[in-house]
Amino acid sequence: MTRRILSLWLPRFAADLSLRRCPAPGPFALVAKERGADRLTCLNPEACARGLTRGMGLADARALCPDLLTRPADPLSVAQALEGLRRWALRYCPWAAVDGAEGLVLDITGAAHLMGGEATLLDDLAARLARMGFDARMAVAETRGAAWAVAHFGQGGVVPTGEAARSLMPLPLDALRLDPETVEGLTRLGLRIIRDLTQVPRAGLVRRFGTAPMLRLDQALGIVPEPVTPAPEPPCFAVRLSLPDPIGLMGDIAAGLDRLLARLCEHLRGAEMGARRLALELSRTDGSVVRLDIGLARAMRDPAPMAQLFARALDGMDAGFGIDRMRLTAPQVEALPVQQVTTTGAQAQDDLADLLTRLCNRVGFEHVTRYLPADSHIPEKTFSIAAAAYSDPCSDWPRGHPPRPLVIFPPEPITGSGRAVPCRFKWRGLWWRVVAVSGPERISPEWWLDDPAWRTGLRDYWQVQTDRGARLWLFHTPQRDGWCVQGEFA
User: Fold this and answer.
1) What 3-state DSSP class applies to 281?
2) Phi-psi category of 152—alpha, beta or left, where left has phi over 0 and alpha has psi -120 to 50?
3) Cβ–Cβ contacts within 10 Å for residue 476, how many?
4) Which range of residues forms the domain containing residue 324?
5) Contacts of 431 (CB under 8 A, 6+ apart)
6) Are residues 75 and 137 in the same domain?
7) pLDDT (mean) for 39-51
């Protein structure tokens, strides 16, 4: 059976997707930072009609089209939408893959007759995409390269079997999916269309441009095969339990959950993966669904600890008229290879992670945090705050600098002037007398960052022992006469 490949090109996919989510009239374009400037990455037809093109600077585009509406480009969202479109396209054939950032390729060999033929399939696909709001161009040919070339640079449609070579010959060299540098070099030699490439000796072109031009030509002509290989589907770790009769007692639900956890952990163990998040869906007999989510501070595949975490979530859950189906999934997993059992601190780390898991599920994962060192010499910037469940502790904090206060707060002005440390000063409504002084330590601002708190310039820090027993951290700014307190030692 002759292979038949469908190439689908969405020339304005990113712009169409943005306008589909939030419509806007008039010229529209997506903007991204490229080569140090804001440039247009995708435009709608109205913007193209005004003379705007991809890669044009935003300032030049606004000069030509003052009413241009722009939004920042979101490549990640576009890639996710294209992957969703690929999965939707499986309705036409069992093999579909993403082709670049704005296209799909489908192997419709032996599947077109189910839609009434290739032409009918193209019409149905184009109509459905148009209803979705996507502008599409597509072609069907014997090879992937020929279908891509006809869809991008030809008239599109169905290329009859055996006519791929004749359809390719008048197309430009860009239709062979070559990089711009190679196309420019071939053009300098007088080769402008694909037919010109077949009239010159191969050896000379290979020596000068490598194997890419001839390989792409052979792939388009069907001499070298180019299969459609979609990316493998990510593994889905999910188990389900259908009950012959509805259940409503918490003990029965817990027993069903134990069965699901045992089966799920067996799947995870076979794949050497561990769950970081679990989702339990309980389907009531009235059609409603109760969803319980549990997060884990470490990758885990032990049923018993997981069941204990669900115990609090199940407590007080309303089973309604009964539950007839249970489904347990692990939407977030991590690699968890088998490890050698030792007497090191691995068990202590697991115990800490289990404690974090229980705390985070009670108060929220974003509310349990830990401090991590940061690369800065500014006192209040020498640390960062991260979620404890998704970060590793630092056992070796950087040392070598003078001691820092136990508590650091925003600078608070005190009475006093001059470069000498004041003997008495008023702070927080009280008078303080200085008993001992240590310092100074000069700290300069980070000139490459615009920090409003450090715009006054460098500071001289002093450790001051007061008569009230408190040891304070004072600083004086030479550029501005005045003293402030910024911390308190233990």
Assistant:
1) strand
2) alpha
3) 22
4) 238-335
5) 424, 425
6) yes
7) 91
Residue 285 CA to residue 235 CA, distance in Å, equals 30
CA end-to-end distance (rounded Å), the chain? 82
Neighbours of 291 (CB within 10 A): 9
Which CATH number goes with the domain that contains 316?
3.30.1490.100
**Quick check: 352 pLDDT over 70?**
no
Q: For residue 321, what pLDDT band results from cuts at 50, 70 and 90?
A: confident
Length of the chain: 490
Residue type, 413: P
**40 strand-pairing partners:** 31
Residue type at position 271:
A
Nearby residues of 125 by Cβ (< 8 Å), 6 or more positions away: 6, 8, 89, 92, 136, 138
**The CA-based dihedral angle spanning residues 345, 349, 350, 351, taken in that order and rounded to the nearest 10 degrees:** 100
In a domain, 373, yes or no: no
User: Is pLDDT at 193 greater than 70 in this prediction?
Assistant: yes
Is 70 exceeded by the pLDDT of residue 341? no
Is residue 226 located within the same domain as residue 263?
no
User: Comparing C-alpha atoms, which of 364, 354, 256 is closest to residue 309?
Assistant: 354
Predicted local distance difference test score (pLDDT) of residue 327: 92
